[in-house]
């Protein structure tokens, strides 16, 4: 099942850690601070970048595209479209230092990508604005 040029296809984006995932039990989590992932990330990037592959998983006929809680079968085609790398090299850049002054808007999308009618997605902008106001 391949996508033809110019064809519109619904999809979900998925970030997967290149290093893999590790689950923690409830008792292991109880022994960690609330921000343990921040400490782990800062320690990790001292020796190697933290990396996530960005995939787009393509919907097939009949897949629910407006409910993010519905998990599609693993057999759905996935396209590797990018990678996020965090290495700390730009931590002192003014834009990075000021990142808490901006508001993330999940509906500001690049050309060729449109939002679905997912009500959760469409409610996020207002929630992010509220979060920004409370951080100030």
Question: What does it look like?
Answer:
The protein has helices at residues 26-30, 36-44, 94-97, 119-135, and strands at residues 11-17, 50-58, 78-86. 26% of the residues lie in helices and 18% in strands. The chain has two domains: 1-89, Catalase HpII,  Chain A, domain 1 (Beta Barrel), CATH 2.40.180; 90-136, no CATH class. The longest helix is centred in the C-terminal third of the chain and has 17 residues, at 119-135. It has 136 residues and is an alpha+beta fold. The protein has a three-stranded antiparallel beta sheet with strand order 1-2-3, with no helix packed on it. The chain is globular and about 45 Å long. 1% of the residues are buried. It is built from four helices and three strands. The mean pLDDT is 89.
Strand content: 15-25%
Rg over CA atoms, rounded to whole Å, is 18 Å
Total beta strand runs: 3
Under CATH, the topology of the largest domain is which?
A: Catalase HpII,  Chain A, domain 1
**pLDDT averaged over residues:** 89
**Distance from first to last alpha carbon:** 48 Å
What shape does the CA trace take?
A: globular
User: Main sheet?
Assistant: 3 strands, antiparallel
How many domains comprise the coordinates?
A: 2
In the CATH hierarchy, what is the superfamily of the largest domain? Catalase core domain
- CATH class membership of the largest domain: Mainly Beta
- Which structural category do the helix and sheet elements fall into? alpha+beta
List segments where confidence is low: pLDDT < 50 over at least 5 consecutive residues: none
CATH architecture of the largest domain: Beta Barrel
Main-sheet strand order equals 1-2-3
SSE order in H/E notation? Answer: EHHEEHH
Count of helical stretches: 4
């Amino acid at each position: 099942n391949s996508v033809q040029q110019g064809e519109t296809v619904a999809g979900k984006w998925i970030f997967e850690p290149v290093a893999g995932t590790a689950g923690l039990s409830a008792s292991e989590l109880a022994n960690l601070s609330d921000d343990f992932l921040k400490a782990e990330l800062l320690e990790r990037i001292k020796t190697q970048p933290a990396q996530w592959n960005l995939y787009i998983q393509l919907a097939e006929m009949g897949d629910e595209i407006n409910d993010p809680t519905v998990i599609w079968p693993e057999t759905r085609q996935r396209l590797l479209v990018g990678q996020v790398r965090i290495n700390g090299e730009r931590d002192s850049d003014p834009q990075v230092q000021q990142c808490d002054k901006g508001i993330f808007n999940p509906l500001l999308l690049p050309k060729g990508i449109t939002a679905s009618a997912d009500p959760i997605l469409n409610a996020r902008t207002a929630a992010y604005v509220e979060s920004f106001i409370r951080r100030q």
